[in-house]
Amino acid sequence: MEHANIVILGAGAAGLFCAGSAVAQGRRVVVLDHAPTPAEKIRISGGGRCNFTNLATGPDRFLSDNPRFAASALARYRPQAFVDLVDRAGIAWHEKTQGQLFCDGKATQITDMLLDRMAGAELRLGTRIDGVAQDGDRFVVATAGGSISTGRVVVATGGKSIPKIGATGLGYDLARQFGLRLVETRPALVPLTFAEQDLALCRPLAGLSVEARITHGKGSFRDALLFTHRGLSGPVILQISSFWQAGEVLTIDLAPDRDIAADLKAARGGKAQVATVLAQMLPERLAQSVAADAGLAQARLADQPNARLDALGARVNRWQVRPVGTEGYRTAEVTLGGVDTRDLDARTMQARQVPALAFIGECVDVTGWLGGYNFQWAWASADAAGRAA
Ligand code: FDA
């Protein structure tokens, strides 16, 4: 049987990074992935430009049942360390907004950099993983290409999002097999969908983007909101989707810089229609739609009593919607929940009860906000496990 010091399951962001960190410790590393190409999610990330980190990274940018868990790894592998790697590789980048760093060119430059960094490790793509069994103080990883005996296994198989490009629940199955607890998983950073009867407003506005503010639970975000044929999307919706649970009502401010009711009252006078005045405060399509929805499509602003303008204002500044669901793992950027951090060592990512087995990246119950945080968690957790290996 073949022997390796470390077998890493998954050649995604975390798996490749962990391989580089472990090779630097002089280990013989084998990385396995069933996909034909490594790190498909890096390729499609950030609209093809990979938002590879966020300078504002800190434990407060992550959701987890145990919010402090990520602090140790994040403190030991900071965004600047990754930026240094990117600079050394000669990859041009820019800061978009709020500390988000993107490649100027293709996202695959990041994958190439990670592959260079792990030179010496063996990467086996298109390899089906049939199982992991404990064999005394070692593991046997059974693959379609034969079995590998190894002293350590690092599980970096990611979450369930985008099965089309290779996501599976293998990490969760292995966690269960070795007695680790799981925090319930659900799609996050995902568009929200509406029931047919609630789509009346969204559908005609499909494609329109407006700046919006949404506060829900512990999440509060201000960013672009996109109306779609199925409901709502855009960064502010993706962010809040991580905090939203099925059945809950969201209150959305579609004009965060204005008090629409007060502004309409102040504009009263003359012969202007409600929709015309509203269109000076909001994108025209939205103004028309909101006025029509309130039965004021042709109404004159001067004729409207305060109560009606208050209701119209609330319709914009406190729009209440009850999404029926999300677009699910088909389009979700990440999976919330996963391997319960109570069963992992925060410094090494090793399972407390099975120290030679580590879990890193998205399969762990640490989920970042939108904006480069999820990759930073992948790098940081991978480095922690790779150094410990
Ligand atoms: P990742 O999913 O990267 O890798 C897991 C690997 O395991 C894959 O290669 C997969 O094929 C393999 N695998 C799974 N099951 C297997 C099995 N049964 N057998 C063998 N191999 C198996 N984040 C961010 O910070 N900035 C961004 O710009 C974006 N953009 C973005 C866009 C889109 C469209 C998506 C879907 C996601 C993002 N993300 C992101 C999130 C980011 O991509 C994600 O958090 C990381 O890729 C997670 O890294 P992992 O290595 O944990 O999983």
TrEMBL record:
Native organism is Pleodorina starrii
Gene it is expressed from: PLESTB004163
Where is each RsdA/BaiN/AoA(So)-like insert domain found? 186-334
Name of the protein this chain belongs to: HI0933 family protein
Query: Which InterPro entries has this protein been placed in?
Result: BaiN-like, BaiN-like_dom_sf, FAD/NAD-bd_sf, RsdA/BaiN/AoA(So)-like_dom, RsdA/BaiN/AoA(So)_Rossmann
Q: Which residues form the RsdA/BaiN/AoA(So)-like Rossmann fold-like domain?
A: 5-387
List the coiled-coil residues.
none
Q: Which cofactor(s) are needed, names only?
A: FAD
Q: Where is the signal peptide?
A: none
A Pfam family of the record is: HI0933_like
Which keywords are on file for this protein? FAD, Flavoprotein
